[in-house]
Design goal:
This protein is α/β, with parallel strands linked by helices. It has 7 helices and 9 strands, in the order ββαββαααβββαβαβα. Helix 1 packs across helix 2, helix 3 packs across helix 4 and helix 5 runs parallel beside helix 6. The radius of gyration is 21 Å and the shape is elongated.
Length: about 280
């Protein structure tokens, strides 16, 4: 699929990671991109879990030592560089000022190795046990097992809230494409994720959904995915743009009967009278 802006149109190769993947002709990575937003949500959910665990341990160990129990006390902003680019994280604070996040220490401004977990979580591709394994790798020996399990609960709850959030009623354009991601846990393994990326009436990009590849990628499969998007509030889609994915046009016609389906964005732009240089 061709990007409306200059692009070489290449697909991610065998060594692709989440940061290098493209979807619907748009880069997932980069500051302000869809992957950066998802990374921010996952990291903030993990920090919320850390704070919950910190306050729990503070109550258990120092409840009789102070008249006023420790509690949450707002947030501070911190810029962190990840595979997805630079993201602004809201770090929770506590009343006593004793909370020091283990995932993002005071002077730590760079965090790697979270992109695979972010994409897999977004696509509902990780179990609770697998999330704990990812977090244990990130935290190392800094956190006991019970604390990591509590953080995993917070991360999964945060992603579930994102996956089920209400959507806009109208999307002028929805791009549907595939993202190929290299799994670090198995050097020869690659995963394919399906991405639905909507363009809002204001012109901003919104990740509508991300799903792990299903061998039944035909009309019934796409109908289920598109119906999920519609049931979250996206009642009207004017145009769906994708590669030639088997069964997708039929599914679009079923879920959004008035939507136009295009399988080549480049041809659409060449025919558009609004294209720069055309009269």
């Amino acid at each position: 699929m061709t990007h409306p802006h200059p692009s070489n149109g290449s697909r991610p190769g065998p060594g692709a990671t989440a940061a290098g993947a493209t979807a619907a002709g748009m880069s997932l990575a980069g500051e302000g991109g869809p992957l950066a937003e998802l990374t921010r949500r996952v990291l903030e959910s993990a920090l919320e879990g850390e704070m919950t665990d910190h306050l729990r341990r503070a109550r258990a160990g120092a409840a009789t030592a102070r008249e006023v129990p420790n509690r949450r006390n707002g947030y501070r902003s911190k810029a962190v560089t990840t595979e997805a680019g630079r993201v602004e994280i809201a770090v929770p604070r506590d009343r006593w000022g004793t909370f020091e996040p283990k995932l993002l220490g005071k002077r730590r401004r760079r965090l790697g190795g979270v992109d695979e977990m972010v994409l897999s979580l977004s696509a509902k591709g990780l179990t609770h046990h697998e999330v704990i394994a990812h977090l244990r790798e990130r935290y190392g020996a800094q956190m006991p097992g019970g604390s990591i399990a509590m953080i995993a609960d917070s991360v999964l709850a945060g992603m579930a809230a994102w996956q089920n959030r209400p959507l806009d009623a109208v999307y002028p354009v929805v791009f549907i494409d595939s993202v190929r991601v290299a799994a670090r846990t198995a050097p020869a393994a690659h995963r394919t994720l399906h991405l639905a990326l909507g363009v809002t009436a204001e012109g901003s990009r919104d990740v509508l959904g991300l799903w792990a590849q299903d061998a039944r990628s035909a009309a019934p499969y796409w109908i289920r995915l598109l119906t999920e998007i519609r049931n979250r509030g996206a009642d009207r889609v004017l145009m769906v743009v994708s590669d030639e994915l088997a069964g997708l046009p039929q599914a679009v016609n079923t879920v959004w009967p008035s939507a136009i389906v295009h399988t080549c964005l480049g041809r659409l732009l060449r025919l558009s009278p609004a294209q720069p240089g055309r009269r």
